[in-house]
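Structure ticket #2291
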Amino acid sequence: MSENTPLPIPERAIYGFVLYLGTYLGFALYLVWAFVREEWLQSIGITYLPQRYWLVAGPVYLLVAFLIVVWFYFAHYLKSTPSLDSINTIADEHSRFLVDQEMTDSSMPPLADVPIYQVNKKLYLLDNY
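Resolution: structure written out below.
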């Protein structure tokens, strides 16, 4: 069993190429449906097509649905973000603070969160912390 990887593999390339061709084929069929007269389509044997109303209404519905999904996605993350006076905006279970042993003057310290007292000390030039 192979592990999941973002590297290009032949199956993924084939699926991408088929989707690429399918997109262009679908757009070509949409344009044929939009611009070719119904009498000509019926003469070659295509007798069932959706109403012409859906030529405009379908893309508009898809666009509105996309905008609603984006709005709900944004609203969900705004709702799940803690308020500014919450302690979770200062530290949570994923916070990583530096221990004094990790800090050396000769190298750059590892990536970590800055404690709030150090931020206040730098911002407000307070020496009594």
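Closing remark: The mean pLDDT is 84.
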